[in-house]
Each structure stands twice: as structure tokens, then as C-alpha cells.
Amino acid sequence: TERTYIMIKPDGVQRGLVGKIIQRFEERGYKLIAMKLVQPTEQHLENHYADLKGKPFFPGLIKYMASGPVVAMVWQGLDAVKTGRAMLGATNPLQSPVGSIRGDFCLAVGRNICHGSDSVESAEKEIKLWFPEGVVQYTSALESWIFE
Ligand code: GTP
Ligand code: MG
């Protein structure tokens, strides 16, 4: 079992898509083990997107991401990182398949409503960055109906 960091970006929150995005992860069978609504600082976001520092869109990305509250979450389950990314769709919503979150709810790469960790290593880093207090451990009654 695996953990991934999923974040609903400021446009996803403002557009009222929080419930729909959470519902997709719940319905797929993933377990929510941490969640909070936060207004991130630019410093924190520069840390989160450190790998992209130097890209021409970096300043705009930080401004966009700091423009309002985000929903920070950790989801756990089989293949959570790769399948989580597939559920979000491609970086550019126009290249995201219909049925994916970006493919169903947005159009512009700079307003793509959600974030997902791109590897197990970045998931670990991002979970520590956004949840230094740690995640919540609990047993889900559904587990034996979702995993064999
Ligand atoms: P995240 O889940 O947000 O990390 O997206 P990603 O992993 O699919 O893409 P990446 O990490 O390469 O880029 C991070 C974010 O920067 C993207 O989600 C976009 O919001 C933004 N971004 C990436 N490429 C471009 C670009 O070419 N133009 C603009 N305007 N924004 C971009
Ligand atoms: Mg990324």
C-alpha cells in the first residue's frame, strides 16, 4: 500500500469542486488519512515546487497557488501515486482524457485545479512538507471489501 499527496488548488476550491474531487478518491477505494484547508505562503509553495524554479511560468505558478486557500490531503491505497496521477489526468487539461478530473473540470494548464505527487519519493517529501504534524492512523471498515 502507498500514500500520495493530493491538493485541490485555489481555482478548484473557488469553483466549488472540493466535494467532487474528494468523492472520486473515496469512490475508487482510497482512504483519506490527512486533510486540511490552508492558505499557503509563497515561501511554502516555492518549497513545494522547488523542482520547477527557473521555469518561465514559475512566478505565475506561485502567484496562482498563493491566490487563495488550498485543500491539502493524503490518500492511501494500492498504487496511490500512479493511479492518483491517472485520476487527475495530464498536466495540460486539453490532453487529459475525459473521465479524469482535469479532463472533466478544467481547460488551462495554469488553472488545472489539482495537484498529485509524481513519484513515491516526492509523495514522502510533500507529505512531510504539508503535514509536519503527521497523518491519522485508523482502520477502515471497508478494507476487506476493497482489497483481497
Ligand atoms: P502538479 O500536480 O501541479 O505538480 O502538476 P504536474 O506534475 O502535472 O506538472 P508539473 O509539476 O510539471 O507542473 C506544476 C504545475 O505548474 C502544473 O500543474 C501547472 O499548473 C503549472 N505548469 C506546468 N507547466 C506549465 C506551463 O507550460 N505553463 C503554465 N502556465 N503553467 C504550467
Ligand atoms: Mg508536478
From TrEMBL:
PANTHER family registered for this protein in UniProt: NUCLEOSIDE DIPHOSPHATE KINASE (PTHR11349)
Gene Ontology biological-process annotations: CTP biosynthetic process; GTP biosynthetic process; UTP biosynthetic process
Pfam families, alphabetized: NDK
Organism (species): Lyophyllum shimeji
Gene3D superfamilies, per the entry: Nucleoside diphosphate kinase-like domain (3.30.70.141)
Catalysis performed (reactions): a 2'-deoxyribonucleoside 5'-diphosphate + ATP = a 2'-deoxyribonucleoside 5'-triphosphate + ADP
Key words of the record: ATP-binding, Kinase, Nucleotide-binding, Transferase
Identification of the protein by name: Nucleoside diphosphate kinase
